[in-house]
Description:
The protein is built from 9 helices and 10 strands. It is an alpha+beta fold. The chain has 3 domains: 8-101, no CATH class; 131-179, SH3 type barrels, CATH 2.30.30.60; 187-268, Alpha-Beta Plaits (2-Layer Sandwich). The strands form 3 sheets. A 5-stranded antiparallel beta sheet has the order 6-5-4-3-7. The chain starts with a helix and ends in a 19-residue tail after the last helix.
Amino acid sequence: MVETLNEFGAQLGDFLSMELWQSNNFRLSVKGLLQVFAILLAARFSIWTLNRTLSTSLGTNAIEEGRRYTIVQISKYLIYTVAFVIALETIGVKVTAILAASTALFVGLGLGLQDAFKDLSSGVIILMERTLSVGDIIQMGEQIGKVESVGLRTTAVRTRDDILIIMPNHKMTNETVINLTHSEDTTRFSVRVGVAYGTDTTQVKQILQQIAADHPESDPMHDPQVILKDFGDSALIFELFFYTRNLFFVEKIKSEIRFEIDRRFRESGITIPFPQRTVWHMNPENK
Length: 287
């Protein structure tokens, strides 16, 4: 029995020592290949454990989805980088020697990949500072979308038209991006409307406030506000302010409020005037 085990151990040792690839720089054996697989598997298991710990052990109230995603993403890149370096060292590849010998190559790559490195550095900034997180509603110019993923090089944003936009990260850090969900759960929006001169302004204010308060997406914790914005050329300009948590479909909410304003104004006899101009024509014969 002992001899059989010794013979099996010897055969196993010969199998693990079998060379798969050999060159002047490194030697790859079955044992080294298995070690590389073990290192990558350990890295994958570490990331899975971290993700599961953040999503279950800490609880949904302890850490929000965006922060969990950010921590997992940063940890993933760090763990895989360390695992890759360890795997190379395991099979005999001297990483420090490669880096020293490839300085000129890296300089050339750096000049040719400036935009890529700019995106990578911007991605690290976004992930570290958490200026953008998964699930945030952002506005870029006239476009509003929801952040679906934040990577090292790009950020994926889905618009309200269900179009997925892949944005380079340097645009997210160098251009103006409004994060509508970064500070508060609710955000204030407004709708403007004009009424004819001579209209009962108190009645207009009451109707506008009631319309906003009755909307199901209006936040009941914040009372709607109405201000007389300006005396326009053809109308009194009112602005209705309301709060909502449904930031992604706020344009739909605004449209529903405008429809209701039009209906209630018609019922109350309140006129929304169109632009008017008075033209005086002078007859030269009457001079």
